[in-house]
Amino acid sequence: AVAQAVGARLRGLREDDSVLLEALVPTARLPALPPRSPAPRLPMALRICTLICSSWGARPQLCQVACGVGRAEAPVRHGAALPQGLDSSLQQWGVRQALATRLRVAAEAAMAALLAAEAELSPQQRGGARARTDLLGVDFLLACVDDTLELVALSANSQRCLETCLLADAMGRAVGEPPGDLPRLLAEALLHRAQCHLVEGKDILLIGAGGVSKSFVWEAARDYGLKVRRLGC
Questions:
Q1: pLDDT tens column, 28-52
Q2: For the domain 24-31+42-199, what is the CATH code?
Q3: Where exactly does CATH 3.30.470 map onto the chain?
Q4: Contact indicator for 221, 195 with CB cutoff of 8 Å
Q5: Which InterPro entries has this protein been placed in (predicted)?
Q6: From CA 6, how far away is CA 21, in angstroms rounded?
Q7: Rounded CA gap, 232 and 230, in Å?
């Protein structure tokens, strides 16, 4: 039926037009909670917002996770519901905690793929010599594929996920929860970039820099934009 619909549509398009098909991902219908009133309970869906930063050595690291719960028949959007933590969301809906480990792997893999794609671009294509992604937000939908719960990446952004995660962190501190690692991880990423900026374009004289085992020095110098002059002993 899909092929027939696309074929019929293509016959009416111009030569430079096309048809875009997107996969339909069924939303996982979470178990209904015990009712507090005789009103019927509507199926709910879970959207997971992750914030990943590039730590030392350009290694993706998951910083913060915030969840939003909404009705299953409508998209759960940023700002449509108050964010809540991942652990409390999984406990509330009876979802296995193993999902948290899969979420970390999926989020960090998404940023690693983006960093790998950026590494193949020229400075002009990236937007400048210093342009790079140090902070990334990735939204996931808890979907159901073949009766199995799966994490499906919806989109990548920065500002909306950052706002949501900071709001969740502030709400937690307001009720007495200890502060999370988000401020520290963000500060480390920013300080690392600031230090690289301070040494960029500087002339460094290395005396007795070592042999093959110290080859990482030259790789780091290239990444930092240093002009290295080596003087043998």
A1: 766 555 556 565 566 777 888 898 8
A2: 3.30.470
A3: 24-31+42-199
A4: no
A5: CARNS1
A6: 9
A7: 6
